[in-house]
Design a protein that fits this description.
By secondary structure, the protein is an all-alpha fold. Helix content is 96%, strand content 0%.
Length: 123
């Protein structure tokens, strides 16, 4: 009977050993899968980092370009201000010319009246 118990103990020990080996292999497989996923994630992070580095270079170039545009824009602002000033002066000049035209017409009319010159003769 003792040998029967020893045989049962040996079978139980072997079964437990197989169980622990299988559980250990399963855990190793799970850990290897997790490790593979983490390695893939690391590679993806490196790739994304390289991609974003390129975007950083592009953004830096765009920032310089925008600064250049702002500089040119301020030059245009000065030109626009000068054009506005010129437009104002032209409008004032046109008003003066209109007043002079009316004044000359009035003088012409007075001259015609005073000297009794027909209007066709003055031209």
């Amino acid at each position: 009977m003792a040998s029967g118990k020893d045989t049962e103990k040996d079978q139980l020990a072997a079964s437990l050993n197989d169980l622990f080996t299988n559980v250990s292999d399963m855990i190793k497989g799970e850990l290897q899968g997790t490790n593979n996923v983490l390695e893939l994630l690391e590679k993806m992070n490196v790739r994304v980092g390289e991609e974003y580095k390129g975007f950083g270079d592009v953004a830096s170039g765009l920032r310089v370009f925008v600064e250049q545009l702002k500089s040119k824009s301020s030059t245009f602002d000065d030109c626009i201000q000068q054009l506005d000033t010129i437009e104002e002066q032209v409008m004032e000049f046109e008003a003066v010319i209109a007043m002079l035209d009316r004044y000359v017409s009035l003088l012409e009319s007075k001259m015609q009246h005073v000297y009794q010159i027909p209007p066709a003769a003055l031209k």
